[in-house]
Design a protein that fits this description.
single chain; mainly alpha; 2 domains; 9 helices; 77% helix
């Protein structure tokens, strides 16, 4: 199995599922762990997420026609982590504190709060990839500038710049939506 390409492993997945998933795990568990650690920040959460991601792909591989497996797997892992972050209460609390000064997030009405959180998530998707990563790590995962720098490879100066520019862009987007 080790000499097979990713595509060949995916093709034999339905007939030799256990062997295929074992080989995929051996090849890509460190990649998935790195992605999960990047987004979740916690080693324990990341290890749990790796198991969850491999459970997800076990279900999804037969349903998709995959031409670039590593990119597809990266996307699955990233999306899984983002969904975990969205469900995490820390996310809403951190962003609530961040935008409290602009009065963009209403405190009294739960329906308005939900709508605002959805608008915020949509606005974050409009940021550049660098800004998005820095905003998610800083506000959602409470990482310091130096921790973000270590995780992303950006300089501390770049991290500060991406955060500042991301904050300005988010505020502008939310004001335009109001």
């Amino acid at each position: 199995m080790k000499d097979l390409t990713d595509i060949e492993i995916v093709k034999i997945f339905s007939s030799r599922r256990n062997q295929a998933i074992e080989e995929i795990y051996n090849r890509y568990s460190s990649l998935v762990y790195g992605v999960c650690l990047k987004y979740l920040g916690s080693r324990d959460e990341s290890l749990d997420a790796v198991v969850e991601v491999f459970g997800i792909i076990t279900e999804k591989i037969p349903a998709f026609e995959i031409s670039n497996f590593s990119s597809w797997l990266y996307s699955v892992a990233k999306n899984h982590c983002l969904m975990k972050l969205r469900k995490d209460k820390r996310t809403n609390e951190a962003m609530k504190n961040y935008f409290a000064e602009s009065e963009a997030i209403p405190e009294d009405n739960d329906d308005e709060q939900i709508v605002m959180n959805e608008k915020l998530e949509d606005a974050i998707c409009l940021l550049s990839q660098e800004q998005k990563v820095c905003v998610e790590l800083f506000y959602y995962q409470h990482k310091s500038y130096s921790e973000i720098s270590e995780l992303t490879g950006f300089t501390i100066k770049s991290v500060k710049s991406y955060l500042q520019n991301g904050k300005i862009k988010l505020k502008k987007i939310l004001e335009e939506q109001s």
